[in-house]
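Thread: Newbie trying to understand structure tokens

Hi all, I'm a second-year student working on a class project, and my supervisor (Dr. K.) asked me to get a predicted structure for one chain before our next meeting. I've only ever worked with sequences, so writing a 3D structure as a token string is new to me. If someone could post the tokens and maybe explain what I'm looking at, I'd be very grateful. Here's the chain:
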Amino acid sequence: MPLMIDGGRIPAGWAEKKGWRVGLSADSSDTRACIKIALINNMPDAALEDTELQFFELLNTAAEDSHVLLKLFSLPKVPRGDRGQEHLNSFYFGIEDLLSSRFDGVIITGTEPRHADLRKEPYWSRLADVLDWAEVNTTSTVLSCLAAHAGVLHSDGIGRHALDDKQFGVFDDRRVSEHVLTSGTSEPMRFPHSRWNEVREDALISCGYSVLTKSAEAGVNLFVKKKRKSLFVHFQGHPEYGTGTLWKEYRRDIRRFLSRERPTYPKMPHGYFGATATKVLDEFRETALSHPREELLAELPEFPMGDGLESAWHLAAARVYSNWLQYVVAKRASTAVYAASASSQISVTWSR
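---
Reply by user tm_fold:
Sure, no problem. This is what the structure looks like when written as tokens:
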């Protein structure tokens, strides 16, 4: 199979799938040609394992005929419960291991922020170290959602802006610049978003970022900038999301309303549910607003009913990530050719 997990640390949900190769070491002879990717998964405990599987599935599909060797990391000081920390201890490597290594690419996820100013988060200093490391020790770096906001804040001082309401749902992106990452994609490209903040196009452009896709409703999504040796790829959205991820978030936010953890009923994710599910969920909303109580949550199914969910972003997500992996391979090959040429020139000089 195209995706392999490094070091034999295989989360159970992935290991249960038939035919996956596990337990290969990064220095074994049959992995030398692999694309070596670090996944720094900082998602909260409730989404930690789901996020693993989402990226596993996405990279496995995007790899096509290539082989990807993935190594798992997470930032220290991200708030964890006992179960989440146990999972990290079992399957993840420490950040010191990352900072003493080099990878072809790195993917860094966000997490649920506790502060409006990200620089006040307990993990900020280590995240800054990782971002600096990525500039010189990777060919390309992918930053997802909150990590994208952290990246532009750290390197260019670009602050994020609070939205009036959560940007939540599936939105149509259109290309605004030609780039290898969007080669072969169709329009519109649909991508999920789930965030309370945004970084704005004018600030990005003034600091040298190239905006590749944006949505009339959700604003900028995909934007890039070369930082030293690494192409930094930023998504404000979540192309990796699984079919049911937005539903799980919506259900969680409904629970928070019913238990009075949040004052307002959450808005339904845009462009996600079909007509039958929308009708049922609208009726549930009216009941919940009239008689809010946590017991009502039992009346919601684990997954929506009727014509169900829309997940039209999967093909676009796989195409963009496939382009990203191909970019990494091409840059690695050109670097190897340059190094071989330089070595040859040195050898000729010394032989004279």
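A couple of things are worth pointing out once you decode it. The chain is about 40% helix and 20% strand. The chain has a mean pLDDT of 89. Feel free to ask follow-ups in this thread.
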